[in-house]
Amino acid sequence: MDATRKARLEAAGINVDGALERFMGNASMLERYLGRFLEEKSYAALSDAVAADDAAAAAAAVHTLKSVCGTIGCARMRELALAQEAKMRAGDWPGAKAMMPELAAEYAGICAALRG
């Protein structure tokens, strides 16, 4: 991973150094996982579940999204998913749904950085 790519990923909220630690310094493996994030289905499942007003499916999807984001270093997205999951567990479905625009913006920024 070159310095320009690393800077772009970090600007999008990805903790590259932290992720590299989890991948034992293997930058090529991290790059593969970052590429897989673009194909990962948990965000789409979350978005669809919220649109369908399906709290159970949304809870499962946000749990998976939180884990994926933690693995690849998407710290801000993980924090948002964690907060949304907490709202769901507390029975605050309206509050959890209200977080979707912020989650969508963060997700879009990460995807743009990964594609760039």
In this structure, how is the largest beta sheet organized? none
SSE pattern: HHHHHHHH
Please tell me the overall pLDDT. 94
Instruction: Provide a count of the helices.
Output: 8
Domain tally = 1
Radius of gyration: 14 Å
CATH topology: Four Helix Bundle (Hemerythrin (Met), subunit A)
Task: Describe the fold and architecture.
This protein has one domain: Four Helix Bundle (Hemerythrin (Met), subunit A), CATH 1.20.120. The protein has 8 helices and no strands. The mean pLDDT is 94. The longest helix is centred in the middle third of the chain and has 18 residues, at 55-72. Helix 4 (42-51) packs antiparallel against helix 5 and helix 6 (75-89) packs antiparallel against helix 8 (100-115). It is an all-alpha fold and 116 residues long.
Features:
single chain, 116 residues, mainly alpha, Four Helix Bundle (Hemerythrin (Met), subunit A)
Outline of the structure:
The protein has 116 residues and is an all-alpha fold. It has 8 helices and no strands. It has one domain: Four Helix Bundle (Hemerythrin (Met), subunit A), CATH 1.20.120.
What's the topology here?
Layout: H1 3-11, H2 16-22, H3 27-37, H4 42-51, H5 55-72, H6 75-89, H7 93-98, H8 100-115
